[in-house]
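The material for today's practical consists of a large collection of protein records. Getting from the letters to the tokens is the skill we practise here. To make this concrete, we reproduce a full record directly below:
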Amino acid sequence: MSEAFGFREFGGPQVQVFFDRPDPVPNPAEVLVRVTVASVNPLDFKLRSGIAPQFYGEQPFPHVLGAEATGVVLAVGAEVEGIAVGDTVFGCTLTGAGTFARTTVLDGANTARKPEGLRDDWAATIPVAVTSALNAVDQLDLPAGATVLVNGVGGGVGLVTAQVARDRGLNVIGTGGTAKRTLAEAVGVTFVDYTDGDVVRQVRDLAPDGVDGVVDLVGGASLRAVAPLAREVGKVVSVTDPTVSELGGEMVRRRVDRSDLERAAALMVQGRLDPYVVKTYPFSQAAEALALVEHGHALGKVVIDMA
């Protein structure tokens, strides 16, 4: 048996609970790991709310929270190649196994060995948050010198998106609340504070003819306001809101395979990408870690140290 943190039914924070479960048994395409660091994402509380119950299939409650982690391999499924028992790896679970747990199973195809020089907490942010940013910038496919608007730049995905874009020679305008300004400007973002009034007007002041692309991390009314700032139809992508298609844009086409994980890890090791892990909680405070992200107060990434 091993300890896990999850929820006993779909709902708000009140349904969260610590519980013990048997160590998962990896299927032929999975690896069993002892989790060292789990990363926290908005996806976690959205799944807890019941937005996508099919994610958990026929598994009974309680469900385990978390989708990405770093860990040490305890067992390897017969179909998994390139990973051995004892390796430190990072990856994601797409089967509802959860990562806010002492042990879990990760999808072998979406798991990579952690390179030398990469911190465990940084690696844990790659499978969901960092690859979201990579996929978004890849999808826009803008040339060097173009300008991209990152709508919601101050969180973990937003800061990484800005850095990836800057690394490719793009100019970045980013929107966010006042508390997000310092970190955003530290990565080269021209910051637009939505508390200062009309965001569209502020962006137009910086880019009178509009921008070459938009990466949306907010959705809803905010997305609908900024989408028309893109000069070309199809140059708006959203990580969060499928209604982007009604605005001529697309959802980010997600890839979390090993090659993308390794590409992101290389950028970190080379000093070209910092995930800005700004808050680390012990496992006993997993609820507080998730609350910080859920309330929108997190600057950068939040992780849970399982030590």
Summary: The longest strand covers residues 30-40. The mean pLDDT is 96.
